[in-house]
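Interim report, section 4.2 (structural modelling).
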Amino acid sequence: MARPGNKIIQAKLVLLGDMGTGKTSLVLRFVKGQFFENQEPTIGAAFFTQILSLQEATVKFDIWDTAGQERYHSLAPMYYRGAAAAVVVFDIASKDTFIRAKKWVEELQRQGNSNLVMALVANKSDLEPSREVDTEEGEEFAQENGMFYIETSAKTAENINDLFYEIAQRLAKACPSKPSTMNLNNEVQHRRKLFCCFG
Amino acid sequence: MSLDSTSSTSADDSPDPASPESVESQLGSVALSEPVAELASAANQVARNGVGFATASEGGDDDEEDADMGGEEGPVGRAEEEVWADYGGVGGLAAAEEVGEGLGGGGVVWGRTNSELEVDEPASPSSSGYAGERGSSGASSGELEIGEVVEDEIQEPRSDGVDGVLDSQASWVPGKRHVDEDDASVSWRKRKKHFFILSHSGKPIYSRYGDEHKLAGFSATLQAIISFVENGGDRVKFVRAGKHQVVFLVKGPIYLVCISCTEEPYDSLRGQLELMYGQMILILTKSVNRCFEKNPKFDMTPLLGGTDVVFSALIHSFSCNPATFLHAYTCLPLALATRQAAVAILQDVADSGVLFAILMCKHKVVSLVGAQKASLHPDDMLLLANFVMSSESFRTSESFSPICLPRYNPMAFLYAYVHYFDVDTYLMLLTTSSDAFYHLKDCRMRIEMVLLKSNVLSEIQRSLLDGGMHVEDLPVDPLPRSSSLPSHLSQPKPPTDSPERFRETCDWIAGPAGLWHFIYRSVFLDQYVSSEFPAPISSPRQQKRLYRAYQKLYASMHEKGIGPHKTQFRRDENYVLLCWVTQDFELYAAFDPLADKALAIKTCNRVCQWVKDVENEIFLLGASPFSW
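Predicted structure of the assembly:
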């Protein structure tokens, strides 16, 4: 895969978002080219790998597909710590998931990793008739927070590859010289809280 | 009257139950000896909420509450009857005040002993002592106008539900059913076995059938009953209402309730509720209690989002996995060398900081290793395997998920790395460290390499195909045992299709002396082995009935005050059941109902010998000690 002399970037990518927004479907479409109408909810987090070759670099993704259920929220830092890229997903047909996505973005920004490549993904674009979140609204929020915005459909595969190519490209740009050191060791002290609701 | 046995043990402060010659006389007898306002209002609410467990059809057959898909909407005709239970099963009616408003008044049996509410346990587990039978005989002796409606219900088409016919393991579809039902639905009320989890403020957390949110009123009623008794400094264990048994389990702010007319013993149902609670702890840890300290009205359902399948799979296993009542685990039969290879590599990994390394095939253990001094309770293993197997997500890719082992440490999460090697075989590596994923991933790759190299994975598949111990293979003559020893499990069986052999098997249908099935539980190993099911018990429904019979046997053998040695021989129209409990093992065996007693006993001895002969292959021996 890797072209000779081409640099290799090992990048940890985390998917965040409310349950049922299609995080697992996005990944399965990207990694395996599959789509299941009734994808079962993820438990904890599932791990995938995928390699993308660009002109300037080869990006090896370590993908953490996290569970959207509330009980896993407080465990999210365990998965997004040290990530080079974060994909925050919402469902265009559900305002609630957009609100939840905004909270994820805030949480990620509190972590203060300025190099983090962030994408705001409006998934289920095939559900246009029941859309609840306008494109402008999503774009505006993304822009304000230094993310890029893209509308995808894991079902029709629309924009799925574009999403990951865009991330790969940004990673390649952001990390011109050093290969395979996306601050994986730069780990913040892990929070011991079990649930967000426990205090 | 046949109901005497019921009422005789009921509470001392309950009025003498009138003979149920007519509904009127029953209703007349409802007066409480002590005024119990809250309880009455609870009962009142029961009535209003439509708590009527219509007489579920027994049909003389095993229940099929898993199988009753659809098919329920059949002839009904008593939607308006609010009955706690059928009129037949009666008892000292102590607390159902509001019968007048349509609560059929049949038989809420409340009893009260000094410190706990304990109601009407059958005096002996003899086969004629079950509530259901009393109920039906009562119905024939006493009454009444609903008789024919009951008949209608009995005839509802049950067994042709989805899994009634097919193989249980293969066809049981996980997940919650009948979400559209609530406590007003007749079909909901006819379910034979309900499970509820609710909070101490009465908020529904889980219900086996129907949408939890729609069952808020019903949950509140259950909560009212529990807290009424608790306010009196008592604890409610169960309530018997005709054929129905309502079993309560209070775990801090979490209440668990089972309402069942399956005639399972109280101890069994309580054990099942304990497992339900354990499953919840496995997902959330016990620190969920803190949420209730902060906010008593805390709604827990979002925290359990997406775990319906886990609970419904567990409930399903209550009737098809003996581990749920034996508190032991079972191993996949494997040649000693194969298992040793698997144990060795897991041991290697465990030494590198993994707390538990478990290789399983479906619900059977291939090998299992714990770090020094760490021991795994069989119930934890059951719950963990159920969690992993019922969550489709683990099959998609390797996962890293927080889980809690309730018997190991109910307060803390462990982290589980889960990976499926093939459709049936999966590896679980448990650790206390939340950032051990990459290490565990490396461990898995090492393990996978070794397993492939030593053919363990293909041996597992082969064992799965061959099955375990078949009663037909029980060595007839105890002497040439040693010569035939290696062949029992791993080699092709004697030609089953040869004519003589066929004639022979016709004689005893399955094993010698009419042996149909057995379960052998090793006390020291906390492991059991269960024989494969022969032709007479081939359908899931028959298997479930047998497990229920074993479960009943188990409960009766483990009642308090039991000596170290005990046997039980019991014959009914379905089986001869023989149970033998010693310090070292427990044997449960089922024979043809016509089996000869002396021969059956002899056969049990041979089974024990057979198990000892092949114990290297069917048990995991000499692994890290399992003491707790």
